[in-house]
Amino acid sequence: VGKKKVAVLAGDGIGEEVMKEALKVLARTSELFPEVQTTYQHALIGGAAYDVHGVHFPEETRAICAASDAILFGSIGGPVEEQHLPKWKDAEKNALLGMRKAFDLGVNVRPAKVYPALSHASPLRHDLISGGVDMVIVRELLGGIYFGKHSTDGDSAEDVCTYTVEQIKRPLEFAFEAAKSRRKKLTVVDKANVLDTSRLWRRVALEMHKLHPEVQLDFMYVDNAAMQLIKAPSYFDVICTENMFGDILSDAASVLPGSLGLMPSASLGSQIYLYEPSGGSAPDLQGLNVANPAAQILCTAMMLRYSFGAHSAAAAIETAVDAVLDSGIVTKDVARPGQASVSTSAFGDAVVKAL
Amino acid sequence: VGKKKVAVLAGDGIGEEVMKEALKVLARTSELFPEVQTTYQHALIGGAAYDVHGVHFPEETRAICAASDAILFGSIGGPVEEQHLPKWKDAEKNALLGMRKAFDLGVNVRPAKVYPALSHASPLRHDLISGGVDMVIVRELLGGIYFGKHSTDGDSAEDVCTYTVEQIKRPLEFAFEAAKSRRKKLTVVDKANVLDTSRLWRRVALEMHKLHPEVQLDFMYVDNAAMQLIKAPSYFDVICTENMFGDILSDAASVLPGSLGLMPSASLGSQIYLYEPSGGSAPDLQGLNVANPAAQILCTAMMLRYSFGAHSAAAAIETAVDAVLDSGIVTKDVARPGQASVSTSAFGDAVVKAL
Ligand SMILES: CC(C)[C@H](C(=O)O)[C@@H](O)C(=O)O
Ligand SMILES: CC(C)[C@H](C(=O)O)[C@@H](O)C(=O)O
Fold first, then answer.
1. Which segments constitute the Isopropylmalate dehydrogenase-like domain (chains A, B) (predicted)?
2. Which partner from A159, B2, B130, B203 sits 20 to 30 angstroms from A117, CA to CA?
3. Residues of B in contact with A244 (CB under 8 A)
4. Distance B247 CA to ligand 2 centre (A)
């Protein structure tokens, strides 16, 4: 097998500096695991792309991604004071929805776990997380109200939420498989007491369950799920849900670990997968060498696992990040009051060393 | 002025027993505040109604409510083991959506505050709530995807979210006024980067803001709002949002106080308003005299304020509940480990005494 081509889209804000650490870790991984051989094509996205091309998702970037085996994505977005500039207007939306559509990214996978060593940083009371919080949210990413008809007619507006059985099967298939390799519990979140699309989700989930009888399946209304994520996060193993509910719940879950800098995510397409940290571009931290690169580093692990099937290399990176955090080496965002913290690059170095 | 007619719909589960305490408190309030004079018409709703009439929202109940000045509502829903019975199928939905439509209940108002005396019960880390958590969520209740067209056609389904300027103005009008009587901050939650209805909400909010310049208005995407409710709940004063986002966010916010038994809510119609605790029917607690009646008692305060304009009587009830909680008299749901707790009726008695 030849080298895998990775499109690297650092984007805005802290994107550049956390990406540097991720690539550092990947380089070391290649030395240790000869099966991991990659080449990089850097491309512009978001505000950085706008400066050069006048659009947030240039054709050039699309072509580079299309010619790659995987996309390593940073983050998008500018400072609060600059939001009125065309550079930032709808930057995130244009880039992300553009990529999703261009590469048929129909399934988003986002873990949310509380690291025992960082449990002080979680916003939740200690006894609520001491039983362990370790879930994966599988979100449908190309359907629902996001991609339905939108219209405005004078004093009224309309957005249409549509789902087909085919669209629903795709994330559920992934979710059932993910549950099998975990604690075998799948919670499908919907609003089946109100929505026809939710009732269709239930029908499809129940049918598919026959093929995966070893998975324990339950259904939960989205309002209740929003409560349980806060009150009883240990309840969840795998959650699967539609696009908008997934947007809300995966962001809610992303704060449980205690920092947005900790969790990676993967968006799975028909050919190419995209890997993206769940935090934002944090423009206020840009250039300060203080941002947490863990999420971006863990994106490389997800990439090795899902895109390149390099399971042991992926596990090695995850174990290294765990070990670094366990040893008390932390960036500012997850340091205890009074605890010393390390820089972005020092954290990356520590992961390389732990590898 | 004659006596005010209150329709009392205790419903299922703990409804009966917490309602009893609310009526006890109202009776004492009438003695102390001669302007508060009420008569009660009891009526069936939910599973209790189904047993007698075969429907969850009987015509008889509708008529009693229609002839009343306010509706005091308990809760609806049966035990997990009985969910397959027709008695419980869609009970909550049928009753609640039925009432909302019948009485044009277009605005839902739900406070979420952490009582300092009960801060140990909040699921959030102490330092996140020590700055005080005291918000009101104003939810549009008769529009959006709830009441749009729902359709299923073989292997695909559709739900339509619609809003008109008129529908949007109603909750916003209330929200601006509420903000004025509070900390003067209004956050409109939407998904304006994706939805046309959200963009219409923004347009209307910006127009109305000109009439309420003393209110500080901001906009927040719903995914971000779900994060901030957990990470920085002190940020919020008044939140206003559309029906489905309001369903999710008000339930998420309802767990912040530490028990679902603490917060009341009001649904405002064109003629009649409905008052309802934010917790559910808790069938597992039914008949045990342990449920927290605070939310139901605080519903009577909201009723006195919004339906009957009896502001000092309303404030007296709220102060009494505060005082009881402050004095360490608590039901089981909010007791500290090892702390003695009192029964439902003893809590009601304590509020009566504090009045
Ligand atoms: C930027 C926005 C369109 C996007 C979404 O809502 O999907 C973002 O919130 C996300 O979750 O990746
Ligand atoms: C029962 C259901 C239809 C209802 C809603 O979604 O509005 C409930 O969740 C609520 O919030 O009162």
1. 5-351
2. B130
3. 191
4. 7
